[in-house]
Specification:
- With about 350 residues, this protein is mostly helical.
- The chain has 3 domains: about 70 residues, no CATH class; about 110 residues, no CATH class; about 130 residues.
- This is Acidic fibroblast growth factor intracellular-binding protein.
- InterPro entries: FIBP.
Length: about 350
């Protein structure tokens, strides 16, 4: 008599998140072994170097095979070679596409071409990340950009659906894609003090108010609303009512601002208003739009810094400056109130984000 036995053979793939993180960070196998051995000694686990090396090499071989699937995340879910549970698949994808803010700051403004991929030494030196790590992020950004730049609809949703990453990470990629599409100047020496997080918040504000995303779902939110940019030229009407505007702003802020800030406002209101309105009137030109951040810095932030404005006072000034203009007949009669609100919503957020004292 033979006993009937059910046999199940599985090749379930085990992934050590700690080793995977070292691989993601660009560590070589020998560097990973050294790091893990040191951690093991600190925890008094007693693992030998040979055992750790065997585990690391096995994992690194697996990661090299998985990487071909990670470049197209949907394939990771469809393939049958590696038996991996869903939470681990999500972890693999999320970490592979993770962005290091210091690295991405160095990549902003660069052309996403294979020629520039070979020239990442400066990004490595300035960010402190290994070259492998910089190349992975450069390749990921280029891949995402090329995939979604022509897709209609919401760029963040397109990235999430295509690359299966979390919304916070997709929003980061969305900002990078938007900045690349608009070709904003971000690499000037004067702008080096700004972090990726600063540009991220500015990009989010612009995408939310100045693109076609706010006019309907059939449009691209990586394209500027050209009609809106042309309407901004009409805001020069405010310069003809400068005295009235100044009076309203000063009346509102006199009891709120520090004496020094109020004196600066009275003395330099013309400088501030001509900078803010002048910027609006020129954004319909491609070159002026691309230099938005450097213009905000040179025309607005640098004069404000000279006046030593505290950030809280600057926030109150921008709010009053916008609201007082809305009270004036000149904007209502020209049907420009909504245009002014859209413009100032973004400019105020960008200025407060970029204003580092």
């Amino acid at each position: 008599m033979y006993t009937e036995v059910d046999v199940f053979v599985s090749n379930f793939t085990l992934i050590d998140p700690e080793i995977y993180q070292l691989w993601i960070e660009g560590c070589s196998s020998s560097e990973a072994v050294s790091t893990l051995h040191k951690r093991s000694a600190e925890k008094q686990q007693g693992a030998t170097v040979e055992l750790i090396a065997s585990d690391v090499l096995d994992h690194y071989r697996t990661f090299a095979l998985l990487e071909r699937l990670l470049t197209v995340p949907s394939k990771l879910s469809e393939q049958m070679i590696f038996q991996i549970d869903e939470p681990t698949k999500q972890m693999l994808i999320e970490k592979y596409y993770d962005l290091d803010d210091a690295v991405i700051r160095e990549l902003l403004g660069r052309k996403l071409s294979s020629r520039h991929r070979k020239d990442l030494d400066e990004a490595t030196e300035r960010s402190g990340a290994p070259l492998r790590c910089c190349r992975r992020q450069f390749d990921n950004v280029r891949r995402v950009f090329k995939t979604v730049e022509e897709m209609p609809g919401n760029v963040v949703a397109n990235i999430r659906n295509t690359f299966l990453i979390s919304e916070p990470l997709a929003r980061k990629y969305g900002a990078v894609v938007f900045i690349a599409c608009m070709r904003f100047e971000t690499g000037k020496r004067k702008l080096q003090y700004l972090t990726f997080n600063d540009f991220f918040h500015c990009a989010q504000a612009i995408m939310g108010s100045w693109t076609y995303s706010c006019t309907g779902p059939e449009y691209y939110d990586t394209e500027m609303d050209r009609e809106f940019l042309l309407e901004l030229r009409e805001l020069r009407l405010l310069l003809d009512k400068e005295k009235e505007h100044k009076h309203l702003v000063c009346m509102r802020l006199r009891p709120k601002l520090l004496d020094k800030s109020y004196q600066e406002l009275e003395l330099n209101f013309r400088l501030y208003t001509r900078a803010l309105v002048g910027l609006a009137c020129n954004l319909h030109r491609g070159r002026e739009l691309r230099s938005l951040f450097i213009d905000l810095l040179e025309r607005c932030i640098e004069p404000l810094r000279l006046g030593c404005w505290p950030k809280t006072d600057l926030a109150q000034f921008l709010c009053a400056y916008e609201q007082c203009a809305l009270q004036m007949d000149v904007l209502r009669e020209a049907d420009l109130k909504s245009v002014w609100e859209r413009y100032m919503r973004v400019v105020s957020q960008c200025l407060l984000t970029m204003y580092h004292i």
